[in-house]
Design a protein that fits this description.
By secondary structure, this protein is α+β, with helices and mostly antiparallel strands. The chain contains 15 helices and 20 strands. Strand 1, helix 1 and strand 2 form a beta-alpha-beta unit.
Length: about 450
């Protein structure tokens, strides 16, 4: 049984977890840095503990401080949210060793799927389609060139322990590969502490489609449909939606079966996401995220499920609540990431919010920890809010997105709202004719 949950995170996801716990009758503990004393998740939790200075490595990334906070408050479970320590297998191990319940997958699954090169090999062994590429990390630029000659240019270098676009370089020829190899390794080591990089064939105009999966400790794994995440900049997602405009029932079944097969291969438990690239009628495994995703509300809106509550139930040893039999998505949903940044240059713009008014009405949801007079600190990511809209179909969802974005008022800092307004008026977006290269053309037209 779980009775008190410590949330090892901040911002909207920490508040989201607290609200789910309240519905379940569970006590909550918020941890916070000195910079987050006035954060909303601190106000809403039953108890709060300051775990260090503003810098994440001295607070939200301090395993000893988080474990100490759990011990002094009597928490019996820890939810890591996303980011920070969410995909740190050592943290998950320590939580278990301290007789606390980790609300997430096992340390072994995190370790195996968190290393992108190992995950790729695991997917291959499970019979899941992968792109041509290296068998594990490439140990020298000469090896990288040999692999690239075999599979053909263009190729992409990826950090084995990576994510978020760091340690990634696209190379169209050998000269580019030679100059990019050490740069990618250095960036990977700075960001993740591991310099290893591997190579894959680079697809020119793929769609980024991910499958939400869930496993329980009783051996059952389910697929909860797809999310399209092709609207992104420098591998950072901007807009997500479900279902994808390109995915048929037959393709959804194939992708779901592949995702389930991979999860069963690693005895996966709790929430996870299998990310695929799709082009010319074929899909290929890219990576797995062993945590709840930023964009999980999109799936919640089309499945009528609370994924965070499901995480907690599964961590407590309960079976999945998803009924057996055919599973169908209902309606259409989109999520818009509202960031504190310049909508053209994307430069972060932290500061004080002077005015804050959230949109409402049918089919509109806002996940946020922001409020009027809240000061967005410069130490963490720039996410202010997630605007989630839902309609009976994609056309109604876009119409509701227009209405919601037009009535979303945030003053005092620059935000990505104008960018989202422009994207949803683009003819290609309206048609659903998108790929991961969408923003490259769009950014040029935005600045012209």
């Amino acid at each position: 049984m779980i009775s008190k949950v410590l949330i090892a995170n901040r911002g909207e996801i920490a508040l989201r977890i607290i609200l789910a716990c309240k519905e379940m009758g569970l006590a909550t503990v918020a941890v916070h840095s000195e910079a987050d004393r006035d954060a909303l998740h601190v106000r809403y939790a039953d108890e709060d503990v300051c775990i260090g200075p503003a810098l994440a490595k001295q607070s939200y990334l301090s395993i000893s401080s988080i474990i100490a906070a759990a011990e002094i408050t009597g928490a019996d479970a820890i939810h890591p949210g996303y980011g920070f320590l969410a995909e740190n297998p050592h943290f998950a191990e320590i939580v278990g060793e301290c007789q606390l319940t980790f609300i997430g997958p096992t340390p072994n699954a995190i370790r195996l799927m968190g290393d992108k090169a190992k995950a790729r090999e695991t997917a291959k062994n499970a019979g899941v389609p992968i792109l041509p590429g290296s068998d594990g990390p490439v140990r020298s630029v000469e090896d990288a060139i040999d692999v690239s000659r075999t599979i053909g240019f263009p190729v992409i270098l990826k950090a084995s322990a990576g994510g978020g676009g760091r340690g990634m370089r696209i190379c169209s020829d050998e000269a580019m590969l030679q100059s990019a190899y050490e740069t990618a390794r250095s960036e990977a080591e700075r960001a993740f502490g591991v310099a290893d990089v591997y190579i894959e064939k680079y697809l020119e105009h793929p769609r980024h489609i991910e499958i939400q999966v869930f496993g329980d400790s009783h051996g059952r794994v389910v697929s909860l449909g797809e999310r399209e995440c092709s609207i992104q900049r420098r591998h950072q997602k901007l807009i997500e939606e479900s279902p994808s405009a390109i995915v048929t029932e037959a393709l959804r079944k194939r992708m779901g079966e592949a995702a389930i097969k991979l999860c069963q291969n690693v005895s996966y438990v709790n929430a996870g996401t299998i990310e695929f690239l799709y082009q010319d009628g074929e899909f290929y495994f890219m990576e797995m995220n062993t945590r709840i995703q930023v964009e999980h509300p999109v799936t919640e809106e089309v499945t009528c499920m609370d994924l965070v509550k499901e995480q907690i139930r599964v961590a407590a040893g309960e079976p999945l609540s998803v009924p057996f039999g055919d599973f169908h998505l209902r309606g259409h949903a989109m999520e818009f990431r509202i960031n504190a940044e310049d909508p053209v240059t994307f430069a972060p713009n932290p500061g004080k919010i002077r005015e804050f008014h959230m949109p409402g009405g049918p089919g509109v949801r806002v996940d946020t920890a922001a409020y009027r007079d809240y000061v967005i600190p410069p130490y963490y990511d720039s996410l202010i809010a997630k605007l989630i809209v839902r309609g009976k179909d994609r056309q109604e969802t876009i119409a509701r997105a227009r209405r919601a974005l037009d009535s979303f008022v945030i003053e005092g800092v620059k935000t990505s709202i104008p960018l989202h307004r422009a994207i949803i008026e683009d003819a290609r977006f309206i048609r659903g004719d998108i790929s991961t290269r969408f923003m490259e053309d769009f950014a040029w037209r935005l600045e012209s």
